[in-house]
Write the structure tokens for this entry.
Amino acid sequence: MSAFSRPPGGQPPARKPQKPILSSKTTAAPKTPAAPKQPPPNARQRAAAAPTTPPAANAPTAYAYVRQLSQRSTTTTLYEAPSHAWMKFGSWSTALFCFGYGSYTITFYTHPPEGLAWWVGPSYSVIAVAFVLVGTAFLMRTSGIVNTIRALPTRGGAAAQSSARPRLDLEVTVKSTVPFMPPRKMVVPYTDVAMKSRIVVPAEYLRPSEQLDRKREGERAREEKRKYEMTHLLTAPFRHAFQGAKSAMGGIRQLFTGSGFGTLKVGETSYKLDVTNAWMLDDGRALDRLVKVVGVDDTVDSKWARIYQ
């Protein structure tokens, strides 16, 4: 039987069903984006309650320093100003000269000499008032200068020392403008005292080994200076006289220019703080740690903040 012959019965053979041919490129249905996952309610509440600003970088250091000072048995001197003798001498001498010249010129208005024009007396009265105002301004240059700042220990024994928040008061004394008068004394909490700028200028960052080298260089320079003083005794009076003249010129310069003074605020009142010639504990870093500085953002963690710690 050939391949083209029909089977018995005359019916053609049944064909196998063919599978549909699909195209190799099919278009996928677009996927709908999934909705973003919402945090649980407790997480949202914690995120809303969290502070937006980081804590102060030097807060732990300041807290520890306050606690250390409050637990001492004696007062701690943080700042002591120089005498400012030349500044006061220049202030009072200039003020007395202005007051005296103003008193002399006012006589041309109260008792004018004969033969003067009518406008001479009123003109001299204006000059007298101007000299009195200038003398008052020079006299007030020495007012409000801080004399000493001391940290007072906490009173109350172990109960006060074991409190969660230590209490520390500062005793601030202000020099009197009138000579030979006692200074004015104030006792306030350390949180009520502020400065407009830091006393210590941020210096370059030094490793501990470099800081030790700097300290040794300073000690070596002081030792050489002492040896020079001991081996050159004949010229010592001239050197000391030059240092005295330099100190006098520095006081007069402070009187006329007001240089070398910072601003210390006690409550709402501003006072003058000599930051160039005064003695300060730890070269001023003690006050920088203890007293808040207005205008400096302590919440920003920077290299200078790490240095001050």
About this structure: Strands lie at 76-80, 146-152, 169-174, 184-189, 193-195, 261-266, 269-274, 279-280, 292-293. The first helix runs from residue 41 to 49.
